[in-house]
Amino acid sequence: MMAAKPIPESDLAAILAATSELWETLRGRSIFMTGCTGTFGAWLLESLSYINRALDLRASAVVLSRRPEAFRAKMPHLFADDLITMHAGDARDFSFPAGEFPFIICGATEASAKQQAEQPVEMLSTILRGTERTLQFAAQSGCKRLLLTSSGAVYGRQPSDLVHLPESYTGAPDSTDFNSVYAEGKRASELMCAVYGRQYGFTTVFSRAYAIGGPHLPLDMHFALGNFIRDALAGGPIRIGGDGTPTRSYQYGGDLAAWLWTMLFRAPDRAAYNTGSGESLSILQLAQAVRDALDPSIAIDVAKEPVAGAPVSRYVPSVEKAERELGLRNIVPLDEIIRRTARWYGWQG
């Protein structure tokens, strides 16, 4: 496995600057984290490692991983100090590490379209049993605050006439649709967290995440931004498999990390916040933004013609609640998200 490059120090310093008032509560204490092998986890772990050293917090993190050595090979720069201890185990049945952990981050599976299509039972089991096992650990480990990394998928299909989806929206996925495995798993996980938190006396907070960009964004999965950057770095054309009309929005990984740390340390009990960007654009506009940022000469191929009068597919959050209640803002604009992602992958522009 090829080792991933570190996140640039300038990004980690920006996360510290945005969260500097939060960290005294972690001084000398421990945090337990699951689901840290993906993009979200990389940003959280790298920022935590950096901030721990910068502020001399003398905190510690225990990170659950099914394959610790593989994770170490992927991100060796995270293990240069004594902050991070890997704990081998499956999220569904891991042995409980010793000690007290007042803070827990539960993110027991990635949003993998491939796994949902090919191994839906495995995905559902990992989400549900993994969340419950983490909650069982929280109940006996001195947990005070737990953050669940949930998803905007919990709302189900966004109505085409609702441009920004608020946390108050009461829609839901179709519980009889095989494609709802990830969404329903996350939805049930939120309920489990609320129930365990109430019974065992710890605060639970929910991040309903949307699309992100930046270092660690895969270029070979089902993420349009990553695929378009891959196409541009290869010299084009940028290929759109559909008609380019669905609308999405993109948050930088560094902004996301600052939002998640703020939620973990400051959000009220059982509060759910959309984490993402409210600045929407179509998939075609995204492809054009990638082209303009990286190589204005390359072509864009759109596979299908739009159907006149067809409803627009939307997946865009309202982030007004996070802005109003926690003072959160997105700092990095889309064109810079694109450039920073490409540079992390070796683009020299």
TrEMBL record:
InterPro entries, sorted: Epimerase_deHydtase, NAD(P)-bd_dom_sf, UXS-like
One BP annotation, GO: D-xylose metabolic process
Cofactor: NAD(+)
Keyword Lyase: yes
Gene Ontology cellular component terms for the protein in this record: cytoplasm
Domain (NAD-dependent epimerase/dehydratase): residue spans on this chain: 31-274
Keyword NAD in annotation: yes
Keywords: Decarboxylase, Lyase, NAD
Gene3D superfamilies tied to this protein: NAD(P)-binding Rossmann-like Domain
Molecular function GO terms recorded: NAD+ binding; UDP-glucuronate decarboxylase activity
Listed name of the protein: Nucleoside-diphosphate-sugar epimerase
